[in-house]
Amino acid sequence: MDLAKYGPWALIVGGSEGAGAAFARKLASDGFKLVLTARKTGPLEDLAAELRGQGAEVRTLSADLKQLDVLDQVRKITDDIEVGLLVFHAGANDTRGNFVELPREVTQGVIQITVVGQSDFARHYGGLMCQRRRGGMILCGSLSSYMGAASLAAYTAAKAYSRIFSEALWSECGAFGVDVLHLNVGFTGTPAMARLGMDISQAQSPDDLAQEGLDNIANGPVWIAGGEANWERARQRSVIDNRREAIEKFATPPRDVMEEKE
Ligand SMILES: NC(=O)c1ccc[n+]([C@@H]2O[C@H](COP(=O)([O-])OP(=O)(O)OC[C@H]3O[C@@H](n4cnc5c(N)ncnc54)[C@H](OP(=O)(O)O)[C@@H]3O)[C@@H](O)[C@H]2O)c1
User: Fold this and answer.
1) Domains defined for the chain, CATH in brackets
2) N or C: which end of the chain has fewer CB within 10 A?
3) For 110-155, what is each residue's pLDDT tens digit?
4) Which residues contact 200 (CB under 8 A, 6 or more apart)?
5) How confident is the model at residue 257 (pLDDT cuts 50, 70, 90)?
6) Which residues line ligand 1 (CB under 6 A)?
7) Under a CB-based contact definition with an 8 Å cutoff, are residues 190 and 206 in contact?
């Protein structure tokens, strides 16, 4: 990764485990200094110690992206440094259910992280990058963004926002020499998925996902990770005609239906 273009500091939002940790390890080995955020202090501090042991400068912050002042919290440890790369990685879904039945705080949390959070972080750090006329942003999303799915209404809609937002931002920031990539994530074997009890043996590895993201930062606006099968899934979910039939055929099934199929 080009340190002169995207350095000297990389901020990884959701940078404690899974692909977030893989981004951190790869960037540290390329000489980047790192700011890592997540909620759980254990994995965050373990990773920071590992990277410091290899000579990297690392700052950490335990903060919940659902908090309204989270950007202010992160700014307290970044206002004195130059963040040339933002990786906004956090935002998986852990609660499924009908939108009208889920507690408002659950669905609002999804919107707060992926819609409000990505927008606020991109505005602040992207704005500074555009002033400097260099830098890059990788905003992580999901294959689910191509189609609304039962039990995932807020998640699929928030991820669609992230993808479309990234496309517009790519166009705007590109004029200032700043790369924007929407990294569209498919099934990946992260600790978050393992904690949900999912069989991750066939999933893409977090390491490969992070490498795909870094390799394609200049190939925006959207990069669908995980190979041709995922590009095909995105095509199937993107049809304009016969939307009803397409949703019945291709939408991510509710988890209880998935479990019945297994
Ligand atoms: N894994 C998949 O199969 C899959 C599929 C499609 C899309 N994606 C996308 O890929 C991204 C990463 O997913 P993931 O599976 O690694 O799980 P994740 O739950 O998003 O966790 C990734 C990182 O974000 C942190 N994080 C999660 N929620 C947070 C919060 N509320 N506040 C602050 N930090 C938070 C986690 O640490 P803490 O838990 O300690 O906070 C971890 O470091 C997400 O955007 C997700 O939508 C994943």
Assistant:
1) 3-261 (3.40.50.720)
2) C
3) 999 999 999 999 999 999 999 999 999 999 999 999 999 999 999 9
4) 187, 188, 189, 190, 193, 194
5) low
6) 14-20, 38-40, 64-66, 89-92, 113, 140, 142, 185, 187-188, 190, 192-193
7) yes
pLDDT tens-digit readout, 34-87:
999 999 999 999 999 999 999 999 999 999 999 999 999 999 999 999 999 999
Find tokens 């899974």 and name the residue. Answer: 18
Asked if residues 139 and 159 have their Cβ atoms less than 8 Å apart, the reply is no
Structure tokens at 207: 């390491």
CB 59 within 8 A of CB 77: yes
**pLDDT, position 89:** 97
End-to-end CA distance of the chain: 40
Pocket test for ligand 1, best of 39, 96, 120, 163 (most atoms within 8 A of CB): 39
